[in-house]
Amino acid sequence: xxxxxxxxxxxxxxxxxxxxxxxxxxxxxxxxxxxxxxxxxxxxxxxxxxxxxxxxxxxxxxxxxxxxxxxxxxxxxxxxxxxxxxxxxxxxxxxxxxxxxxxxxxxxxxxxxxxxxxxxxxxxxxxxxxxxxxxxxxxxxxxxxxxxxxxxxxxxxxxxxxxxxxxxxxxxxxxxxxxxxxxxxxxxxxxxxxxxxxxxxxxxxxxxxxxxxxxxxxxxxxxxxxxxxxxxxxxxxxxxxxxxxxxxxxxxxxxxxxxxxxxxxxxxxxxxxxxxxxxxxxxxxxxxxxxxxxxxxxxxxxxxxxxxxxxxxxxxxxxxxxxxxxxxxxxxxxxxxxxxxxxxxxxxxxxxxxxxxxxxxxxxxxxxxxxxxxxxxxxxxxxxxxxxxxxxxxxxxxxxxxxxxxxxxxxxxxxxxxxxxxxxxxxxxxxxxxxxxxxxxxxxxxxxxxxxxxxxxxxxxxxxxxxxxxxxxxxxxxxxxxxxxxxxxxxxxxxxxxxxxxxxxxxxxxxxxxxxxxxxxxxxxxxxxxxxxxxxxxxxxxxxxxxxxxxxxxxxxxxxxxxxxxxxxxxxxxxxxxxxxxxxxxxxxxxxxxxxxxxxxxxxxxxxxxxxxxxxxxxxxxxxxxxxxxxxxxxxxxxxxxxxxxxxxxxxxxxxxxxxxxxx
Amino acid sequence: xxxxxxxxxxxxxxxxxxxxxxxxxxxxxxxxxxxxxxxxxxxxxxxxxxxxxxxxxxxxxxxxxxxxxxxxxxxxxxxxxxxxxxxxxxxxxxxxxxxxxxxxxxxxxxxxxxxxxxxxxxxxxxxxxxxxxxxxxxxxxxxxxxxxxxxxxxxxxxxxxxxxxxxxxxxxxxxxxx
Lengths: 664, 178
Hints:
The structure holds 2 protein chains of 2 kinds. Among the domains of chain A are: 1-166, no CATH class; 523-604, no CATH class. Chain A is built from 20 helices and 10 strands. Chain A has helices spanning 2-30, 33-36, 39-62, 69-74, 81-86, 92-112, 119-143, 168-197, 202-233, 244-269, 273-296, 309-333, 348-379, 388-409, 419-444, 449-472, 479-485, 488-513, 617-634, 646-663, and strands at 515-521, 526-529, 532-543, 548-558, 561-566, 569-573, 578-582, 584-586, 591-600, 606-614. Chain B has a 7-stranded mixed beta sheet. In chain B, strand 1 (44-47) and strand 2 (54-56) form a beta hairpin. The longest helix of chain B has 18 residues, at 160-177.
């Protein structure tokens, strides 16, 4: 009974989405307030019914309702409750429902936090969100109904959640990732509304910014969680595989990063408008492309969903309609009047433009590397494998270049920066960075050109950011007062850049100075990995909730002192007859010691994988710092809603935007 | 003029869309190998079953063989395995396995469960031979003649139909020639 209610709720939500995509827009185009007023209630209703549907599916998982095909395929009565909960989004249908729930959630959020916007704009933005919702509701209702029943032969038990996915990383990774993907729909909706109105002004950029930043922060967290999960759960110790699905998440991240920076220029200086609006369209399109790549089966990947041509065609149609209609709109409506250059060839505008060029180039690079096989296939031109070597060789130089540019760009001023002044300004950070980078090289023992470049870029960004903070916070009333005086959005930027520096440092150091050893060990043996001595003390058995495991015991020594005792496992999941390697890791801020047990070679001997991973945590900590930066930026005073003055703000805001328009 | 520039993204997007559309429904990687008619690339990799032993391209001399690229992580490999068992046991086909970007213990548990149709298995954890062969995903199956020359590449699952309609004719042709 319940599952049918869930489906009904989904269909009602679809109908509400259809109304949302038409009624307020009609109201906005004809200037009828009464129709525009429907936007907010319809958004709320759509969210509520999607929520009901999601709750029903969750309930089906919790009570082990195996008459629902999706539950039977992705759960099992032996599964602990928290994995039953996360199994809701463990497969295609449920994760799509989560995606839609978030889309409805973002729509509701726009409805709630847009009180200061002109009603016409709100109606248009919400209508565009509604259109996107219609697309995805149709997709789930037509091709991927999560409530489909297996009747009358209800299976006695489910076929279990893929053991790879039974992990805290999976509970969190998809929701974060989807929040990011879907969140870019808001910036997209604002861009489309602005194009319809023909008002690409500072107000538009100002309102798009916090939404973009939030979505970007979630996406950053999502990608980092995925990488962290792959690192400890796949048991290989790798943190990025350039897998098509990973690339699919990196693409909107890169263009979203470009968008954030470009929006800043558009808001502050009123330039790059056409470019910014194009980036907003591209970023969301890339999110959709990611969904398409993962769910259509056009590319093979370790973690793509089952291929289904019908779903693929539907998604491609959705992607096609979105992209083509928005780009047609763009082509006809984007402003072509180029503002006569109101900035010098050396200015903050130029630095941010270069930042955008690099990020877009990196986006293209990843896109090409991911889609190339498809293109070649189409042209019948044979085949070339693109894998890690291609990405590592091309992506790293861009990352370093972006870092170097960033360090210099921090000191630049809007409109015009004096070249000599900037060079003098950079002298000290340069000296400090060279010394610090050399120091890092000495500590890790061994100079390598790319290691130097990567570490240097990272140190350079850090030093420049800190230097700038120091400059800005000087105050007659003392340093503390100076620090307090800085805005939250400034601190957001500082965190964002420091986080990036951490990620770059982590990636460079672990790639260049990490050690991997595959050794054969019998209990009592010891082996060295880096400076660490690992002693294999024995093997034991234990039982988990839905698996049995063999675990090894290892003592880890550094300079004769024990630093850790590790118990990597090999787990056997009886229900779906699979074996999982559960690595054990002694984590630390500066290094991880990673042990995984492999196959039993003889009765006594085991294949053991030992790894020393310096600074690997910085990858994820850095991402966290970046995301914190994003959240700090949007908590800035200027975005906080002043509820009391609400009544008047609609007109007030337009007046506030007027000077910016006049300037343009 | 400038207005025309704004159409550029649209044109690009439509172009990409055509490629994507072409990709749907097709087997993801039914791609001709640039290697057809050329010898198997040089390699030097461990034997999965006997880690001490190193294998190289001379493995393919003397007898026609299927080179099957597989991995435990690849769901389609599970599907086709039964058919490979059938080929090896019923048809007496010589199948060389290329364990591609896999982990040893996973590979072994896979074989323990489903059986082992391979005469020899090349262990390629980093995918280096796979890279040289232009492998994009697993499974892929190559027909290699007695001189060690690649004759055919099949991307995707091997089953009875693929064997009867595609691989067997190729093998017959190759054996007729050599």
